[in-house]
Structures are given as C-alpha cells and as structure tokens.
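Section 5.1 Outputs to date
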Amino acid sequence: MPRSGKALTTIVAVQGLALAVAVAAVGATIWHGVAEPGTALAFGVFIAVGELARWGAPGGDREPAPLGAAGALAYALLGEAAGRSTHHGAPQAVAVVVAAGLVGCVPHLALGRGPSADDMARRVLTVAFAAVCFQPLYGQGRFSAWLGDGAAYALLLVLLLVLTALCDAVLAAVLMHARTGWPFGPLLRDELRAMTGIGTAVMATGAVMTLAVAVAGLWALPVFCLPLLLTQLAFRRYAAVRTTYRQTITSLARATEIAGYTPQGHALRVAALSRAVGRELGISEPDLTVLEYAALMHDIGQLSLVDPVADGATAALPAQEQRRIALLGGAVVRQTGVDAEVAVVVERQADPFREQPLSARIVRVANAYDEMARGEGPQGPLTALERLRLATGRDYQPDVVESLARVVSRGGVTLPPAG
C-alpha cells in the first residue's frame, strides 16, 4: 500500500498519464484509420503471442513477457518493411501495442495472474517514449539525411532502446518507491542492474527485429518468434529452479521448528523483517537474497545442542554461547551447499556488532526483536523496540534498530502468528 497521500498521487499520476496516452493513441488511430494494416496485424499478433507466453505472477520477474516487450519496441522503432517506408506513426504504434497486449493478457487476467496496473502503465509509457523519439523524425526523413542507412542508423536504434530502457527503469523505481517507501536510489540501481540481464536481451532483440523486418519483410517475425520462445522457456525454467532453491532453504530452516528448538514461524518472521530492514537501508537485490537466506537459517546451529534453549531465545544467552551456536550454524550451512556468503552471515551474527558485516547486524536485530516481542501482547512490539534502543551502542547498531522501527511503524511486514 502507498505510504502517504503524496505516494498515492504519484501512482495515480503515472497510471493516469499512461491511460491518457493509450486512449489518445487509440482514438487518433480510429479517427485517421490504420496505416499498413497488414504490418500492424503482424506485429499485433506477435505481441499478443508474447503476452500469452508470459510467466509468473505480477511483481515476480521484472520482464515476464520478453517476447511481447521486444515486439512492442520493434514496432515503435519500425521505419521500413521489406525496403518500403512505413507511415504508421507514434499514435498507431502505441495503439497496436495496447490492443495486442490486452488481447494477450485476457487469459492471464481470467486466471488472476495478469500484469499489474503498474506493469501496464510502464509498457504504454516506454513504448510511447520510443515511438515519439523515433517516428516523427523518421517520417520527416531526418534520420536518413543525417545518418543514412548504414551502421550509424543501427547505432541510433540501439541508443534509442537504451534510453527507453532507462525510462522504464526510472518509472519502475518511482512506482516501487511510492508503493513501499523503500529508498529510491537503491531501487533504481537494482533496476539498472537488471538491464544487463533480460533487459539487454529484449533491447537487442527489438533492434535486430526492426532491422530484419526492414530488409526481409514481415517473414522475419516468425523467424524470430521460435528462438525467442525457446529463450523465454529457458528463463522460465531458471526461475523455477530459483524458486525450488528458496523452498529448499525454507524447508531446512523449519527443521528447528519441527524439532521443537524454535517457535513456529520464527525463521520466516526474522527473514521478512531482515529483508524489509535491508531494503530500508538501501541494500542491493543480490545482497538482499543473501540476507534473506541467512535470516531463514540463522537458528540452524541449535540443532547441535543437547538441550533446547527455552523458546529458542538465543538473544538472551551469554555472548560466548551465542557465538558457539552461530559457528555451529555456519558449519551446518556450509554442508548444505548454500552460498558461502550465507554461512558467513550466520557465523558472525553473534560477534560484537561493530565487527559484523551489515547483513549480520540486521539478522541480529530482527532476531532479537521477534524474540522480545513474542508473547508480550499488544504492547510487545513497542516494548521490544524500547529494549533494543536501550541496548544500542552496546549490542545493536543504532541505524539498524531505527530502520526496524520505521518498518514496524508503517506495517511494512505482516508477521505470521507465533503458533
């Protein structure tokens, strides 16, 4: 949920602008008629197929429909088809993308897993940005006069696609910042980092597709469709492996709960809090994943104890005993094949906080908060925060405690019941 009226205004403004652009583009296309209907239909079918082949739920992957995105950008930057100049213009480019996207999303929307309003707004605005930058100047013959039809023209397309990707990254970061309140800078950095993955593939495919249609005509579209679908299938399998990996770690983390060493849901609560605090502190996405995995497995060392700690509350133990459990946990994590960075965070969560990496400091605070707040009734969170603040400078880093307080105060994390 948006944090404030200002955040809500930002979201409404972005989505309202996208809706206005889409309605204006569709209206202009209907009023003036469809130019090159065969080309428009071919690209529309291509984009719709790409949307039909999307994977995942809203908010999962940054680009769950790369085939549709590449086709949309290619049509926005299309200047020729089989050697003949096209004249569809920017409004029709946006209208075709909107219509095809809606057709392709209907089955997903019926199943409740279609794109979110934010995703649709970003697609409309980024395609409009690319089309407005390209179509008017191309239609006036400016690009041909300035650059000709050689390598300089291809580089121009790549430059426009890069600018479009930057526009999309900024929009994504703005919307996420408005919805979550997480720092804008790290969000933008994560979006820009994501451009080196699937984003680069989408941009490159869009540029090559535009050039191929200019030379070979619309037959280039089915030629591109099959390899792109296979690539999309490979990304989908990778996402499935990544999900299975996380589920395996979550199952390992529950071993302490099943054995009766820790309360039900403790590991998940600490992981959720740790990730939210990490976001608040501006940690990048890869480091957030390490942080989350370490938080899930932070108590795994308790399995080596002969007698369980009462309620699994390790924060109240002597420092030496905490470090022994942490080292045992790190050794267990290393045996599971999980990333060594996760083991380091688990091992060092009980060190003096000034000697810890930031991830270990976050796990330490989140773990202590959950243990202190549990069983204290409605005043438990406030009491826990007060105790943490009193111990800052000695046991906990003040910045981490204050970040946790901000996360809890705005209800950014819903804690499951202790069970």
